[in-house]
Design brief:
By secondary structure, this protein is mainly alpha-helical. It is built from five helices and no strands. The chain has one domain: Ferritin. Helix 2 packs antiparallel against helix 3 and helix 2 runs antiparallel to helix 5.
């Protein structure tokens, strides 16, 4: 986004608030990516191959989402969080390590569902806050 684009956006919204929200979403996507990627490599037992395959695909999707958020943050003149150790505390959904029991596929799936629900809730809140600012 060029200087003029940033000026137009800044006239309509609090860019710092948007950047803060985008950084939260960016952090959550990174945490989800790592959570799903690690679980995909950790699980074992009956049906683990199917779960692992799905988690690998989902992990790649989450990384792509993080990249999109980072690009938008940069376009708005902000900086995506650079300290990986802070991501779990910046985001609203956090990070949940896979269960110690590698065969506990049910818990892995429940943790993924919780993470996805949390992200959807946060995105809905972002949309409600900015519903009249459709340029963002």
């Amino acid at each position: 986004m060029g200087k003029k684009g940033i000026e137009i956006v800044q006239a309509k919204i609090d860019v710092n608030e948007v950047i803060s929200d985008l950084n939260k979403a960016y952090a959550d996507e990174w945490c989800a990516h790592f959570q799903y990627w690690l679980a995909a490599h950790w699980v074992s037992g009956i049906n683990a191959d199917a779960v692992s395959s799905r988690l690998t695909t989902q992990s790649a999707d989450e990384l792509m989402h993080a990249e999109r958020f980072a690009n938008r943050i940069i376009e708005l003149g902000g900086t995506p969080e650079m300290d990986f150790s802070k991501l779990a505390t910046i985001g609203g959904c956090g990070y949940k390590a896979p269960p110690r029991d590698q065969g506990n596929l049910k818990q892995v799936i429940l943790d993924v569902i919780d993470a996805e629900r949390c992200a959807i809730d946060f995105y809905n809140k972002m949309v409600k806050k900015k519903k009249d600012d459709y340029d963002v």
